Amino acid sequence: MSLGIFIEFSINVLSMGSLYALIALGLVFVFGICQMVNFAYGEFLTVSAYALYALGTFTNLPWLMVFLLGILAGVSVAFFCELIAFRPFRGRSLEALLVTSFAVSVILQRSFQLGISPRSRAVPIPDFFNQTILVFGVSTPIRNLVIIASSIILLIAFVLLMKKTTLGIAMRGAAENFTTARLMGVPANLVILAAFVISGFLAGVVAIFWSAKTGSVEPMVGSGPLLIGFIAVVIGGMQSLPGSVVGGFVYAIVANVLSLTLPTTLLSFRDAIMFIIVIAFLVLRPGGLLKGNYQEERVG
Amino acid sequence: MSQASDPKLSDPILSVKDLVVAYGSVRALHGISLEVYPGELVSVCGVNGSGKSTTLKTIAGILKPQSGQIIFSNKSIAGKKPEQIHKLGVALVPEGREIFPSLTVAENLRIGAFGRYSAKQFTLDLEDIYALFPILKQRINQAGGLLSGGEQQMLAIARALISHPELLMMDEPSLGLSPTMVDTIFELIATLKERKITILLVEQNAERALQIADRAYLLSTGHVKFAGQPADMQSTVDITAVYLGEGKGGEL
After folding, report:
1. Min Cα–Cα distance to chain A from B205, Å
2. What separation in angstroms does the CA of A160 have from each of A146, B112, B113?
């Protein structure tokens, strides 16, 4: 492998991996606290992407403002989904919550299809995002470097949030033992809402980079990242925040190695091979690479 | 926490009346009534399945009563959420300690102080906790799951104390500990009693619990079988029979 290919490989793995890590993190945040797999997570991302499309197309706001409002859209939809859709069903059963998340997902998808268009819309993205830059003699879109830098900043911010703030510590405690956390005065509604807000925030950030890569948004755009998030989470561990980050990077490494090494005729089987790896994980190490300290089944 | 010299002269801080609790269709408590006065150490004894833990869990809000009253500080708390009840000043040291295993000792304590957390107050409270539990100071940055059983029990008690509870409820604090550690825990409970902390103690180790209790209740299959002075309980009720069935029981 030449140095050029190696550098290109590294940049691809780092940028894809950090994006996938953010996707997986948003999924695990809610799962860790509520034990609920949120199938509507992809739609949080879709809402953000449509907000980027609308603000970028119909307003002249500076792009930084567009990005912030796009993230805010993801946060808001997560916030209201928790208040309106999930909260009334908490304390019933995990199955009820699971079905609710499917329902929210389908309702949002159909709303985009009926309200906007079933066809894709172009998301305006600042030009510099897709300009290329030379890194050690390899040309790569600036976008990739922005993804890597923002992910590192976000991950550091999350570590500080979870380790240093009372809310973060309470959330970690609630993820390990929800009932005991409530006995210590940690309000169930507060930590769950916080988990959804963080999840929506991550979906919003991911939406920016996802749209930058694809350049467009359509009603089903969230399903791709959702699937990647699941795979990363299965690999890394459903119960562990660091695990989801590890899972995101492992996914990126495997996907890139396969792209690089598979003969052209087999390249179309790349996703199938990814799924075989996921099945292998489910059979051999269902807890994922990093097992968390899951203690009890709970629905809040 | 102000106490009258004779607790009975004041109103009870906790008053439970005709409490009925069921797990699904299985009734665990058939109308339990008990009272705790400010500054008292009240011990609830009984065998496994007699309803001791169920009583504490219902007061703490983990279980919802089918009927009956729970009055704490003149407020009805029956059916309220655990976090609301904690805020009113009821702290539970849960059975099995329930330490957050991957959180450090300091973080476990910080969750205990949740809701009334200010960095300054927390530092002061921490000093107080260190004085009571020197071992926790040495372990402060260790993960809770790596502590020994006894150390975890101390952490669980410290985590409840740091919220300055009006009522401290302890569910089987000596369960599964070494005899030396059991001594340490009971000495600690005696110290807390000297500090006039109101304590509702559930214990299988009735003998030890009755030695330090001001008053005692004996539960059996969800009914109160005895309420009164610990000494009277030992003389009027054949505790060994309640615990071990018929005959003279030895050490378990």
Report:
1. 24
2. 21, 20, 19
Look at A186 and B83 and tell me if their CB atoms are within 8 Å. Answer: yes
Q: In this model, does residue B77 exceed pLDDT 60?
A: yes
Specify the number of domains making up chain A. 1
Angle at which helices A270-284 and A241-261 cross, to 10°? 140
State the CATH number of the domain containing residue A50.
1.10.3470
The torsion angles phi and psi of B19, rounded to 5 degrees, stand at -75, 125
- Per the structure, the complete domain to which residue A72 belongs is given by 11-284
What's the CA dihedral at A104, A108, A111, A113 to 10 degrees?
-130
Interface test with B, best of A161, A183, A186, A241 (most B CBs within 10 A): A183
Distance of CA B221 to the CA centre of its chain: 20
A160, A161, A171, A184: best mutation site toward chain B, by most B Cβ within 10 Å?
A184
Answer yes or no: is A295 within a domain: no
Task: Please check whether residue B16 is in contact with residue B191, taking contact to mean a CB–CB distance below 8 angstroms.
Answer: no
**Contact yes or no for A172 and B103 at CB 8 A:** yes
Establish if A4 belongs to a structural domain. no
Q: Which of B111, B163, B164, B166 to mutate to test the interface with A (most CBs of A within 10 A)?
A: B111
pLDDT, tens digit (0-9, with 9 covering 90-100), for B15-33: 999 999 999 889 999 999 9
Q: What is the pLDDT of residue B252?
A: 43
> What class has domain B40-63+81-243?
alpha beta
Q: What is the ipTM of this complex?
A: 0.88
pTM, to two decimals: 0.88
With CA atoms as reference, the chain B residue closest to A174 would be B100
pLDDT at A1 over 70: no
Torsion sign, CA atoms B228, B231, B232, B238: positive
Confidence of residue B239 (pLDDT cuts 50, 70, 90): low
Domain residue limits, chain B = 40-63+81-243
What chain A residue is nearest to B89 in terms of C-alpha separation? A185
Cβ atoms of B177 and B185 within 8 Å: the answer is: yes
pLDDT tops 90 at residue B213: yes
* A172 contacts B102? CB cut-off 8 A: yes
